[in-house]
Amino acid sequence: MTARPFEAGERVLLTDTRDRRYLIVLGTGKQFHSHLGAIEHDDLIGAPEGSTVRTTNGAALTAFRPTLSDFVLKMKRGAQVVYPKDIGLILVYADVYPGATVVEAGTGSGSLTLALSRAVGVDGRVISYEVRDDHHEQAAENIAAFYEGSGGKPENVELRVGDVFEGIPENGVDRMVLDLPEPWHAFGSDGVAAALAPGGIFCCYLPTIPQVSQTVEAMRAARFSFLTTLEGLVRTWNVDGQSVRPDHRMVAHTGFIVTGRKLA
Question: Is residue 4 part of a domain?
Fold first, then answer.
């Protein structure tokens, strides 16, 4: 793959020597200002990834295209985002694969929607429901922003305003991922979980133990099997020569992930 230089209109992540990060959109003739001084966007346009530029105060800033994780932590939020550590667990434990059809609710700020879109690939499909118009609009803006400069919103994502508990037209979907406060309403003879194909995986993201307990019992009653409840805790480490120690801060509890498989 040939290295592609930075272009006007795309997002670039700037990092300083203390690993502080700044997300900007390149524009011809524009400047980026911070406490470190200013840089010219034109100094980056046409430059390769990994280039270092100096501010007017002499500080070094290194430029890369943002990863999905970088973007999620910096993007505008209408609702709380699903954090990268949980996104990774959801994709693996819900076994979201290329070509899968996934129903998501609620969209929130769109962080998980972006990851699901990548995981299902061009042959898959993500249908994401959100009850609030403002959150729907913010998610649409964030998804378009992530793909800005490379064609806009991916064709495999469909964002809808609606309540999945009032019924959905989809049937025989491969995976269902809910980030809602009362996912147990998905079960029952006329619940939205009926849209899952036999063997399909239901996954939900919940902040509290009482929600987890009620959801798991509802899944058992609906004859779901292989029930799993987990959380992920991430601790980074500082490695500097012989000084190797855990960082003083870590990303601890953010939410529980519950998965189960639908029996025939």
Answer: no
* Phi, psi torsion values for 68, nearest 5 degrees: -60, -40
Q: Is residue 76 part of a domain?
A: yes
202-214 confidence digits (pLDDT tens): 999 999 999 999 9
- Residue reference for tokens 């959150």: 135
Report yes or no on whether pTM surpasses 0.90: yes
DSSP result, 67-128 = PHHHHHHHS--SSPPPPHHHHHHHHHHTT--TT-EEEEE--TTSHHHHHHHHHH-TT-EEEE
d(Cα 195, Cα 169) in Å, to the nearest integer?
A: 8
- Beta strand residue intervals within the chain, DSSP E: 11-15, 21-25, 31-34, 37-40, 52-54, 60-64, 101-105, 125-130, 157-161, 173-178, 196-206, 224-230, 237-240, 243-246, 256-262
Q: Measured on CA atoms in the order 48, 49, 51, 54, is the torsion positive or negative?
A: positive
Task: Identify the domain containing residue 57 by its residue range.
Answer: 11-66
The structural domain count of the chain equals 2
CA angle, corner 34, sides to 30 and 37, nearest 5?
Answer: 80
